[in-house]
Design goal:
The protein has three domains: 165 residues, P-loop containing nucleotide triphosphate hydrolases (Rossmann fold, 3-Layer(aba) Sandwich), CATH 3.40.50; 64 residues, Histone, subunit A (Orthogonal Bundle); 66 residues, no CATH class. It is 48% helix and 10% strand. The C terminus is likely disordered. The radius of gyration is 21 Å and the shape is globular. With 351 residues, it is an alpha/beta fold. It has a six-stranded parallel sheet with strand order 3-2-4-1-5-6, sandwiched between helices. The protein is built from twelve helices and six strands.
Length: 351
């Protein structure tokens, strides 16, 4: 049995995940030579928005001077208009982890996209590639779905998914276009209903890919609410609107999109909180203080809602997978850390 160590840090936005990751990495790097086999660490980003180049304020990246020399991988390498999905990230992270283990370095996975972290920790949870033949009419409908998706017609996509797989369609609101199209792509690629695949996975005992120590940073919701609101205010002071404006220009330059056209907020960096909320304000001639205040409030609301969804995924998906895992060849454990206090800090001593 080969020991394959990994540290994962998950939690909502605004609880100090990156700060803890940097402190852990520095502590491991300071371990005296000969005291431990594993004596260095690097951070691997698991935030789906921080993979994009630039836009540091919009995506809440840790500034370089605050990383304290700790190398951050899988960050700042995709162009804003590019799609980057979970399977691509998992493979890239696995390749980096293999290389780090050969160098006796411990990977520290940190980010708010717990869905990515879960698929890294447990293999075999993504839809397979065993493509079965589909009726021509169904495949044609799915091909057409790709076209209407580009136009942002979410209701048509959800109607199609309801016809093909009612149980899984009932999970998502028709406006949740990204998840709806993911389910349609599973049908198209595998010839199977996503609900059947998900049901099979729920009955399997997950086998960890690594020997993982997972920290769940949790904050009292009321405290977190005020912290997130303050974070939005700070982002505006740090130049959020400049980044939104630059992203609008990139989008129009990439698609030749005339002003006033419907924008697809489900692709790449355009999903980021802040872009959608300020797009209308910044593209509406004559928009004034009232529209600006509304955009701020909408961004704060979206941020709080996102934090709730992050908690729901960890509580309902990631934690049960870890607690029910097959602790055989590799073991995985989760610990809850109270991050309610502000600022969050942890004294680490590995001596």
């Amino acid at each position: 049995m080969s020991f394959r160590p990994l540290i994962a840090i998950c939690g909502t936005t605004g609880v100090g995940k990156s700060k803890l990751a940097i402190e852990l990495a520095r502590a491991l790097a300071q371990t005296p030579r000969g005291h431990a086999q594993w004596r260095n660490a690097k951070v691997i980003n698991a935030d789906s928005m921080q993979v994009y180049i630039g836009l540091d304020v919009l995506t809440n990246k840790v500034p370089l001077h605050e990383r304290e020399g700790v190398e951050h991988l899988l960050m700042d390498f995709k162009r804003p208009g590019e799609q980057y999905i979970v399977g691509q990230w998992v493979q890239a992270a696995m390749d980096l982890i293999d290389d780090m283990h050969r160098r006796q370095e411990i990977p520290i996975i940190v980010g708010g996209t717990s869905y990515w972290i879960q698929h890294l920790l447990f293999p075999g949870r993504l839809a397979g590639e065993d493509i079965s033949p589909l009726p021509p009419a169904v495949r044609m409908s799915l091909d057409e779905a790709s076209l209407v998706y580009s136009a942002g017609v979410g209701l048509q996509l959800h109607t199609l998914l309801t016809a093909l797989d009612p149980p899984v369609a009932a999970r998502w609101h028709w406006k949740d276009t990204r998840k709806v199209i993911r389910c349609l792509n599973i049908i198209k690629d595998t010839g199977r209903r996503p609900s059947e695949i998900f049901d099979e996975q729920s009955k399997d005992v997950p086998k960890p890919r690594y020997d993982s120590l997972c920290f769940w940073l949790y904050s009292d919701p009321e405290i977190l609410k005020h912290r997130l609101d303050s974070r939005v205010d700070a982002m505006l002071e740090q130049g959020l609107l400049d980044e939104v404006k630059a992203l609008i220009n990139i989008s129009r330059g990439r698609t030749d999109e005339p002003a006033g056209e419907e924008v697809d907020f489900t692709q790449g960096i355009y999903q980021s909180i802040g872009y959608r909320e300020f797009y209308q304000y910044m593209t509406t001639p004559g928009a004034g203080p009232e529209e600006y205040a509304l955009a701020i409030e909408n961004m704060k609301t979206s941020t709080r809602q996102y934090a709730k969804r992050q908690i729901q995924w960890i509580r309902n998906q990631l934690r049960p997978a870890i607690e029910g895992a097959d602790q055989g060849e590799h073991q995985t454990h989760m610990y809850l850390l109270d991050a309610t206090g502000e600022p969050f800090g942890l004294s680490i001593n590995l001596m």
